[in-house]
């Protein structure tokens, strides 16, 4: 024969005690009913029905002074239970067969206790869900704030970069304007003072700073005319100067002609006339051309990098000048 589990036996004993307490309660025997409930709580302290009966019996006993009402005896019809007693706390009468009702034999599985557990589970789930929602909302807001701060910082950096670029461009424009205006005036003044070399140097600066300047052609013609007049062979008597002076004079002619690269037609004519008039030998021309090449390139580099890194047009001019002067030096060999 299969034996009952200890828990099942204990629940069965508690159910029997509660049934006796219910009969005593209906007969107004509060102390006796409370004693039966206490026995049940000793067996199973956490029994929901026993605790509810204890509270109700205690309240009724205080209300009625602890004595049974007159005219009532054991075995009479049950006294109606106060309507305030919850339905779940009512213990049904014993069945004819003496079996324990299902709700008393297994009170832990009663519908009210199950509802309470389910309600507690729902509340806990709701609280957890709300906590997760709040955490997600906090994280979302923090991320949005970080993104907004990053976007704002990027805007500030972009504005600073734009302001820096604008300031650099404005500085370059001012410098270019000053160079253009100064070079235009300087060419005329230097030519008036017979400083052809200085006028040619300013003309070179102007052609680099403002290659589309409308005065360039006119100023070039003025410099070419002054060069032709100043370096005219007829003004020099070969017998009156030494070979060292010949080299110096011819070098100045080459230097003035090569400042912008390959000499133009007027400058080439002046070089040929000076070579013939001064009786410049090929060896002398080779030596002079090598010196002029170094000096012209060095002066152009100093001028280009005087105000910092030159712009692409100036760099292109330096590359062209270096290439053309190298070719000129080789042709003089």
Explain the layout of strands and helices.
Layout: H1 6-26, H2 30-43, H3 48-64, H4 102-105, H5 111-192, H6 196-209, H7 216-230, H8 243-257, H9 265-277, H10 282-304, H11 312-331
Helix pairs in contact: 1-2, 1-3, 2-3, 5-6, 5-7, 6-7, 8-9, 8-10, 10-11
Description:
The structure is a single chain. The chain has 333 residues and is mostly helical. The chain has a domain at 6-68 and 82-107. It is 71% helix and 0% strand. The chain has helices at residues 6-26, 30-43, 48-64, 102-105, 111-192, 196-209, 216-230, 243-257, 265-277, 282-304, 312-331. The longest helix has 82 residues, at 111-192. The radius of gyration is 59 Å and the shape is rod-shaped. The relative contact order is 0.05.
How would you describe the shape? rod-shaped
* Unreliable stretches: 67-111
Number of strands: 0
The helicity comes to over 70%
Task: Return the structural class.
Answer: mainly alpha
Evaluate the radius of gyration.
59 Å
Percent strand: under 5%
The ordered string of helix (H) and strand (E) elements is: HHHHHHHHHHH
Task: Please give a quick description of this structure.
It contains eleven helices and no strands.
